[in-house]
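Researcher: I'd like a structural prediction for the single chain below. Treat it as a standalone chain; there are no partners to consider.
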Amino acid sequence: MDILDILRQMERNDGYFARAAVTEALARRDEIVPELLRILEAVADDPQRYAKEPDYMALTYAMFLLARFRETRACPLLVRIFSAPGETAFDLVGETVTEDLCSILASVSGGDLSGMRALIENEQANEYVRSAAMKGLLTLVATGQRTRDEVMEYFASLFGKLERTPGHAWNALASCCTRLGPEEVLEQIQRAFEDELVEPFMIQWSDVEEAASLG
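Model: Treating it as a single chain, here is the predicted structure.
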């Protein structure tokens, strides 16, 4: 199977996982990575075009493969792609946004926070993309690429940066802080609940208090 055959099998949704093509791609990293980066670059240049093609799968395959390869050159391209407003992100890769984007972003970041920070602070980006970027920072802590204190310091700064309108970005911020241990930001989280920025069906104040009590 040559590189063109691999790319052809991964381009469209034919109703099955292109296992042979993926296996071959994994074995031929040096040859396939430039092609995968070209896929990301094409989508980054015109995300709306690809969002109109519901059977287009090349982006999804490229994202997972580049994450598997820990390819940092993918990071700025993914930031461009997922900075698109509205539902474009879901039109491009569906539930990958909520299920796997956090891990993909962390895998291609090389431990650098800047790409995920850019998505988090982009008020025009989809709120679930921003949430995924916050969770990506948790992954960096869990894998030892960043310390808990570094990421918590950044999360604390977001309470003064995010637009104070209810939405999933606030849910994610409260949840991520709670998962890391919310002692330093208890007052800010409580204020967010009081201002009804956090939706209680996503996380409740009692969850925050319980996490803080654990130390």
